[in-house]
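Sulfotransferase
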Amino acid sequence: MNVILSAATHRSGSTLVQRILNARPQTLIWGEHLGVLSQFHAIYKKVQLLSEKGKSSRKAYFQSGENPNQWLALMTPSPEYIEQATIESVRTFLDQLYQQNKEGHDIIGFKEVRYGAKELTILQKCYPEAKLLLLVRNPLKAWESYPKSWGEYSSALQFARQWNNNVKDYLAIARSNPQAVFIQYEKLIAKDAATVDRLIELAQITKEELNGVLAQKIRGSVRKKTITPKQAAVIRRVCRRNMRVLGYL
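Structure:
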């Protein structure tokens, strides 16, 4: 993977940025894969727990010269082997998944709208040289734009918690990882000079090509729903600190 585009929540402009990147013919940024890397992380945590529980068994077994006459049921490799197995598994999965139409493209990537620090940490270890685009939108506007029929969030509270947790993670990653680029959707739509210049550089396209994508509304766009005062209050309460940091309050 050369580019990983991660949005804090749905309706944050990830498809728009994906289209901008794909304006370059040699770039192929695929769509979402429904957050499946969260399951890899869950596997990692389960095996890590076994490794900790079986630590004494593992130590005793190898110190005894591999004597089989002892309790071995939970003996599991050390944590560093579990981490490396997870990294190799994720890398193999993604590399094989995105083999389709790879020919003729020298930049390959995907976008996702479900990942926070857990998944992004694995991805950074898998692809330390990949550009990591971290996309955020005002949570009030993102929730207003989210269709009820999609059904992935049970409430405005769940949505707000995901936004807040992921934005906190994104800000920390952007400070620590030189490959990470933090993008605010509102600045892109407003054609903020610094944001536009950064995306043009990353996408390796011209300003005219970027403007051509911004000007074109496509199928898949959805109508806004009415956001109730109660929902707005919940979102502001949960997300207040990071909304202030980003100038949304």
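The domain at 3-32+103-245 is CATH 3.40.50.300 (Rossmann fold).
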